[in-house]
Records
---
Amino acid sequence: MQRKFIVGNWKMNGALTNNEALLKEVANGLAQMPTVDCAVCVPFPYLAQTQSLLRDTSIKWGAQNVHQANNGAYTGEVAVSMLRDFDCDYVIVGHSERRHLYGESNLLVAEKFAAVQEAELLPIMCVGETLEQREAGITEMVVAEQLAEVIKLRGVQSFRTAVIAYEPVWAIGTGKTATPEQAQEVHAFIRKHIAGLDEGFSQALCILYGGSVNASNAAELFCMPDIDGGLIGGASLAAKDFLAICNAGQK
Ligand code: PEP
């Protein structure tokens, strides 16, 4: 079994003054947890601060979004080369908040995924169904379609240098977590789906679960054979909660 990978997604939260205390406490706690891997994806303005506070720790950092183009007249956008300037390792692409609030399509997500990989950073690609889609019994179809656009653009082997996060939309920020069995079922589907196209690799594929993970439910989710860690929103904003989740991921 691979090491668990726990990623904090701060979303649009944080402040210079609070971030320092949060990052220091998380870094100190993680120093006592040598068997779990961890990263935080922070808002763009805090990348410099995060870089300077985490550069001598085991914690990696990254961004929550990126533009698909390398540079140009895209007012308000951020290019992946800029993320490289701050030593980011990871970029979340296709978070459901971006898909639903900003209309990001599967194709756009695939283009962002490609831009991240071309700059030699690692995409954390979010996939997941809405409640309506789950109730209609089309969860696997929806997830397969989300993956298909990346496979079409980059080939299935591109998942060798990426992370997938299964995040049922109905579980994000709602306090409703998928049961470990519900999550496991979709994770196993994703692994099998990739294995069907890229035999020999799928066991090493890192598939995170995200959706209201907290200190009380993390351990039971992480016990599942196809759950390789978590993408943590709300609970990544409190050091104590985030560290408890990381602790649940220790071998
Ligand atoms: C997320 O932001 O990816 C997420 C899973 O949020 P939360 O943990 O708050 O549900």
---
Amino acid sequence: MKVTRNSPGTAQGPSGWFTGAAYIDSLAAPSGPSRLNASSVHFTPGARTAWHTHPNGQTICVTEGVGRAQGRGGPIEVIRPGDRVFFEPGEDHWHGAAPDRFMTHLSLVEVDDKGNSATWGAHVSDEEYAPSPKIEGA
Ligand code: MN
């Protein structure tokens, strides 16, 4: 057992991976036989990831705020606290905050044999981000 006290290790997400400001708190990193890479990702309003894929898929769980997520070719979904989204291995997608809200989600991924957790593509343009999202129940 090892306790890691709340540390000042918050890191701003690289500009190549995000549009706008997002901050990452690492929760778990691959170690020994464990491939788990877990983090808490904090998006400022309007911030979102670039298009990307995960070699072994990804689960995100929203803990605060209101966000958006989209798989390539699918609708933009509104995601709220308690909502979980699973992205299939290799599924091209993005996730981020709503335009006028912060959003925080947990991210759970398993790295591949080379330790990679994601492959990054183009930024999500304002035109891709702007369309009105699907509203659950509307
Ligand atoms: Mn992802």
